[in-house]
């Protein structure tokens, strides 16, 4: 960056990648972000990971969309790869008025011909709270239904389902920083060193001062080096393992009877259920010795203060909700909730997936998880919105919407900042659905794989080009600020959504995101005492905030839960096998996930020069013994085949991967992992089973 003192302006904002929500200072020179430093936010205290520090220059990439694009009438088939050199074959540039008219006009035509349910929307956890709120409002008010969802469906939907069911709230009960007050912490199905790297620094510090870290994962994730216990269990065996641990706690009388009596219900049913899970019976199923399971049970139950953190290794299963139910039960029976150093914390993925969910970007809930089936709830929103009653039917989820496209029920879509052509399971099925749409409007910063299918592409703003609040995994509402303007004719997403709504005849009037925030606060109890100005002035406010001067509550539910009689619930979890089990044709297990350098479908980080230089090529990881068996050297190409399809990808040796497993990142379009994944859904959270597919691995001919 040359002379670090040589910049024109400095802007405080929030890292746009993961749910940790690190605060950053953006140094701007000649209209470009020159470099980024961490500042003293509550979640990062000056720290940043490689993505936050070096992953910002995608915003200046020459591929940025700078003009609205409209598909040419003589364009080749939808879905072909649109590239910088050939986009004119597919699209023509347009002015905003024309593009917005065509975008909204197509939806109006479908609505007139087939009813409002013919058009659905995917909003974005990469947008601000205000943008997420406006997006769901447009779908509900403009089309009269609830077919609006976003990528939470693909990450923590099952965790939220279990938390809502048993605790009465879908957010974390304590910030991750509370680990500094814990004696023991469980991290399960998460790889924070790569996926929540700054949170991981707090976990490492915790072990340095003597805290006991229990890591549970089918991969030997990086935190194992800091762990007192590393349980590398068999993929899909979570419920057996966790029930065995809880069995020991019951058998040895290690549970907190007083807490259970005061704050929970259904304990007797849970206790009876756990009788069937003795560790000696479960060890062969989960691959963890019975004595280790007993030791973990004693360590966690006998601690003064324990926390549980989990990630998508827990949630992305057809039994994801049951996995989370087990974790909730474990915390409840040991009384590790609602006190310093205790709590339940699903580590949220996207920078604003918590906020987008809170803002109602989900098909079964209005903002703040208010039940869309209740007339009084809908009336409260339409009273604020001024008009437009909408359906009392829960809407369709991400994968259900694409199935409804195949069924001919949904014919048009509005997709803002999401990339289902890369992120959905069995992605060829998703791509076929996108190709079948009669009218697709994509709003994004690049021509993504999803935009390849668009009829209209609207050029939007990157995070460092906009104003708005975001909410991190800790429930901390923070302020994003623009450091540079969007390039060319690109605009902030909220402005585009407002213009589209008005072309749909909704008569919206907003002059700023602050006005949107004020409207949100009218019907969102979580925002009580939180104002735009407070967030701007104080930097971060954790909800709930109990007074206009309260910085917010890091720990909640110390005196009961937001459920009937203030009691949390035990829901016994049965063992459900993964949907796509290995057999003779597909003998290994594929697990998908992220790598440190790349973010989700790669549209941002693969255009960030440092990150792309560090990790430029599609790769997957296998145990060295597996590679030897296959006759493959590290760096050679292999073919992965599941019942859905096949990809060729470079193989790496990694002792952390179990011998009969393969780990595949999903950021690489040239070897898209989701060609292979299984679309089977958890029945409660409707989340696909990304973490378990039977796979055949072969040496490739393409060396
Ligand atoms: Fe950004 Fe997350 Fe890294 Fe913090 S930990 S710098 S929020 S990617």
From TrEMBL:
Is Phosphoprotein one of the keywords? no
Organism per entry: Ponticoccus alexandrii
Domain (4Fe-4S Mo/W bis-MGD-type): residue spans on this chain? 8-63
Entry keyword annotation includes DNA repair: no
Question: Which of UniProt's keywords are assigned here?
Answer: 2Fe-2S, 4Fe-4S, Iron, Iron-sulfur, Metal-binding, Oxidoreductase, Repeat
This protein's source sits in the domain of life called Bacteria
The protein's name is Formate dehydrogenase subunit alpha
Coiled-coil regions listed? none
Q: Give the record's family classification.
A: In the C-terminal section; belongs to the prokaryotic molybdopterin-containing oxidoreductase family.
Whole protein: which stretch is covered? 220 to 922 of 925
């Amino acid at each position: 960056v040359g002379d670090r003192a040589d910049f024109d302006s400095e802007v405080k904002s929030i890292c746009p990648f993961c749910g940790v929500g690190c605060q950053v200072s953006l140094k701007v020179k000649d209209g470009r972000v020159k470099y980024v430093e961490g500042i003293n936010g509550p979640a990062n205290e000056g720290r940043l990971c490689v993505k936050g520090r070096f992953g910002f220059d995608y915003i200046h990439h020459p591929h940025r969309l700078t003009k609205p694009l409209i598909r040419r009438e003589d364009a080749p088939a939808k879905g072909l790869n649109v590239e910088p050199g050939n986009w004119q074959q597919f699209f023509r540039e347009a002015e905003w008025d024309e593009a917005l008219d065509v975008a909204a006009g197509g939806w109006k035509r479908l609505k007139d011909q087939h009813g409002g349910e013919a058009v659905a929307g995917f909003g974005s956890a990469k947008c601000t709270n205000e943008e997420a709120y406006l997006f769901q409002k447009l779908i509900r008010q403009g089309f009269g239904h609830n077919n609006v969802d976003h990528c939470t469906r693909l990450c923590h939907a099952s965790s939220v389902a279990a938390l809502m069911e048993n605790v009465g709230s879908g957010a974390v009960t304590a910030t991750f920083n509370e680990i500094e007050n814990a004696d023991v912490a469980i991290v399960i199905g998460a790889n924070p060193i790569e996926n929540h790297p700054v949170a991981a620094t707090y976990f490492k510090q915790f072990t340095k001062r003597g805290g006991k870290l229990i890591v549970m994962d089918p991969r030997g994730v990086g935190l194992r080096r800091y762990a007192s216990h590393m349980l590398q269990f068999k993929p899909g065996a979570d419920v057996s393992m966790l029930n065995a641990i809880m069995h020991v706690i019951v058998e040895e009388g290690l549970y907190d009877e007083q807490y259970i009596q005061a704050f929970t219900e259904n304990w007797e049913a849970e206790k009876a259920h756990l009788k069937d899970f003795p560790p000696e019976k479960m060890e062969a199923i989960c691959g963890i010795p019975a004595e280790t399971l007993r030791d973990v049970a004693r360590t966690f139950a006998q601690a003064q203060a324990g926390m549980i953190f989990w990630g998508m290794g827990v949630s992305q299963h057809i039994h994801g909700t049951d996995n989370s139910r087990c974790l909730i039960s474990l915390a409840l029976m040991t009384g590790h909730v609602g006190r310093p150093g205790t709590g339940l914390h699903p580590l949220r993925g996207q920078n604003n997936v918590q906020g987008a969910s809170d803002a109602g970007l989900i098909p079964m809930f209005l903002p703040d998880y208010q039940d869309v089936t209740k007339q009084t709830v809908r009336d409260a929103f339409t009273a604020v919105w001024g008009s437009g009653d909408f359906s009392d039917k829960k809407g369709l989820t991400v994968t259900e919407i694409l199935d409804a496209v195949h069924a001919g029920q949904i014919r048009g879509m509005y997709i803002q900042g999401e990339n289902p052509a890369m992120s959905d399971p069995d992605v060829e099925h998703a791509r076929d659905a996108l190709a079948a749409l009669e009218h697709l409007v994509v709003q994004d910063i690049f021509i993504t794989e999803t935009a390849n299918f668009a009829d209209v592409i609207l050029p939007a703003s990157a995070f460092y080009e906009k104003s708005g609040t975001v909410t991190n995994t800790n429930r901390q509402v923070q302020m994003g600020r623009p450091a540079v303007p969007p390039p060319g004719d690109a605009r902030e997403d909220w402005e585009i959504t407002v213009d589209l709504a008005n072309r749909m005849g909704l008569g919206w009037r907003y002059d700023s995101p602050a006005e949107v925030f004020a409207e949100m606060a009218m019907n969102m109890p979580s925002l009580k005492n939180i104002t735009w100005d407070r967030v701007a002035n104080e930097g971060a406010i954790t909800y709930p905030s109990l007074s206009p001067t309260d910085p917010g509550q890091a720990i909640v539910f110390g005196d009961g839960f937001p459920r009937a009689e203030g009691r949390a619930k035990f829901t016994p979890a049965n063992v459900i096998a993964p949907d796509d089990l290995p057999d003779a044709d597909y003998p290994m297990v594929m697990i998908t996930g992220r790598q440190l350098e790349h973010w989700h479908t790669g549209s941002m980080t693969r255009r960030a020069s440092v990150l792309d230089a560090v990790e430029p090529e599609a790769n997957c990881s296998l145990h060295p013994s597996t590679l030897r068996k296959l006759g493959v050297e590290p760096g050679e190409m292999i073919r992965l085949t599941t019942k859905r399809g096949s990809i060729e990808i470079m193989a790496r040796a990694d002792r952390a991967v179990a011998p009969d497993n393969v780990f595949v990142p999903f950021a690489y379009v040239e070897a898209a992992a989701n060609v292979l994944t299984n679309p089977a859904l958890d029945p409660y959270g409707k989340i696909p089973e990304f973490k378990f597919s039977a796979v055949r691995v072969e040496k490739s001919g393409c060396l």
